[in-house]
Design brief:
Blueprint: H1 5-14, E1 18-22, H2 29-39, E2 46-48, H3 52-60, E3 78-83, H4 91-102, E4 106-112, E5 130-134, H5 140-144, H6 154-163, H7 170-180, H8 184-189, H9 192-214, H10 220-229, H11 240-247, H12 251-263, E6 267-272, E7 286-289, H13 298-319, E8 325-331, E9 337-344, E10 347-355, H14 363-372, E11 376-381, E12 388-391, E13 394-398, H15 399-403
Parallel strand pairs: 1-4, 1-5, 2-3, 3-4, 6-8, 10-11, 11-13
Antiparallel strand pairs: 6-7, 8-9, 9-10, 12-13
Helix pairs in contact: 11-12
Length: 406
Amino acid sequence: MRYLTPELSRLWAKENKMAFIAGPRQVGKTTLAKHMLSAAGAGEFYFNCDIESHRKAILKNPETFWQMRGISGKNDRQRIVLDEIHKYPRWKRFLKGLYDSFGKDLEIIVTGSGRLDVYQRGGDSLLGRYNLYHLHPFTVGEVVRSDRNTACSPDEFWGNIADSHTPNGAKDALQAIETFTGFPEPLFAASTARFNRWRNSHRNLVIREDLRDLTRIREIGLIESLIMLLPEKIGSPLSINSLREDLGVNFATVLNWLESIERLYYLFKIRPFAGRMVRTLRREEKLYLYDFSVIEDDGPRFENLVALHLRKLCDLWTDFGFGEFSLHYVRDREKREVDFLITQANRPYALIETKLTSDDISPSLRYFGQHLKPRYTVQVVRHLSKSMTVSAGITTIAAERFLAFI
């Protein structure tokens, strides 16, 4: 079970909408979807648009294809999975027709590695017919919990941080994720040789298959060169001009390539917070990788790991309806910077700095904490002598304790 499982059950029981599950390649979307089918006694109702026979069945009978396999007996409504559906031609129109005709009879799970972001475009809109959920790589909290369910409200999360001790196994879980990433196959295999094979395969799947299938980009060699340049850019404001010069292409092309591989969940970007402080920078984004194993420097690598945990936290709170949470960073013209700022409804909520070893509180964290006045101000340290200390409203906490509740 993953942390989305109880929420999916609640969605069908209370709202009867389609469940869209988006996330990186090989993060476990298909495994989760098949688990939900098995729980409903509907294992044969799995349809994958990468499988030719499944694709033909949908093309021939777009409204009744699922009825060809009979009806399972555990639910009043039939549960079906449509995997990689964004590869189906006019997939939004197809889903709209299916839901409008049989929505009362079906519990529909839609998955995809490409972004399933849906925008209202005339009669092609799916607005109000689905909830979008993001499935992320395993986090420290998921590894240490036997039921994998780390979903909790923001207040419960901060209450756990303040009141609970470091869960058993958190230190080992953090080290395992640092070594093998949070993708389930290499993480649970815990084999260096298998991890190296997986990493090469994963990159090829995203760049040579998904990018080719879902975009018109054909300069695959240059895309691979771009990807090789990204690990050294982690943790710093991104200069598109620098990448443009390295690759010998124009600014718009680099921007388009980055947006394309972001849509495929190879990386994600966070923007600087453009709040009420007039001297903060508002243009340069920072980027992070879902597979951070290619980052050689310990500092940026740890920052990327924490970024993944915080991105999952923001997506979970937003997807589950706790509010509108977003991940940013803060930097001003005097080059004071804090790694992360979580906002709630575009207002400062939690300011978070990462450090490898320093027990001393970052001066920039103090400065922005005083000026932005977030609800929580935290310094997360990879190697810390004490599990947690609080001074002048700033919490300094060991990474394994903080991440064990995400």
